[in-house]
Design a protein that fits this description.
By secondary structure, this protein is of the alpha+beta class. It is built from three helices and eleven strands; from the N terminus they run αβββαβββββββαβ. Helices cover 16% and strands 35% of the residues. β2 and β3 form a beta hairpin. The radius of gyration is 16 Å and the shape is globular.
């Protein structure tokens, strides 16, 4: 039976990948009104195993920038926040900041809005939406991070290195089978 999170993605009009082992669905689930500066969102990884059975894993993450970047944006126009939606084939396995393998926005554009008022509250200002290449990656934080702080300037970031190792190993297996191009779907609620 198809996992409920995939039904939610389909209900929002997005594509889901249902054919073939390790053809991964990568889904960020943003918590609305969650705890500031916490890894309180979920990064889902949903796929069929070799026996054709659904596998559904999720990892604590953040899909929001940390307090540091909200208060100290790297651009005058504000800190980037990824707009919920599906970004087909926009990501590939590459070195995040030249350091380790992450899912990096290299293959397609994403949509963001900017929070520019330099406080620790995320303000949704969709009227300032932009589309382009912003380096909105999917990567890890530290070994076992509990505060987002500088770990995310708009990226999706997994707080635990152990969780990250599990996640990226499955994504690499998918890349070996289907190529190094991935879709990321971000939903809210």
């Amino acid at each position: 039976m198809r996992p409920e999170i995939l039904q939610r993605v389909a209900d929002e009009g997005h594509v889901i990948f249902e054919h073939g082992a390790y053809n991964v669905n990568i889904i960020g689930q943003r918590t609305i009104g969650g705890n500031k500066n916490q890894f309180d969102d979920r990064l889902h990884l949903v796929f069929h195993n070799e026996a054709g059975e659904w596998q559904h894993m999720w990892f604590w993450c953040t899909t929001d920038p940390g307090t540091y970047w909200l208060e100290n944006p790297s651009r005058v126009s504000g800190t980037a926040i990824l707009v919920a939606g599906q970004y087909r084939g926009a990501y590939k396995i590459a070195k995040h900041r030249g350091l380790y393998d992450g899912l990096c926005q290299r293959e397609g554009v994403v949509r963001i809005y900017r929070d520019s008022n330099r406080d620790d509250i995320i303000d949704a200002k969709i009227e300032t939406e932009e589309e382009g290449y912003f380096g909105i990656n999917i990567h890890k934080a530290g070994r076992d991070s509990t505060q987002v702080n500088r770990w995310s300037a708009g990226c999706t970031v997994v707080g635990s290195e152990i969780d990250w190792d599990v996640f990226i190993s499955i994504v690499k297996k998918s890349a070996d089978m289907y190529g190094n191009k991935f879709t990321y779907t971000l939903i809210e609620g």
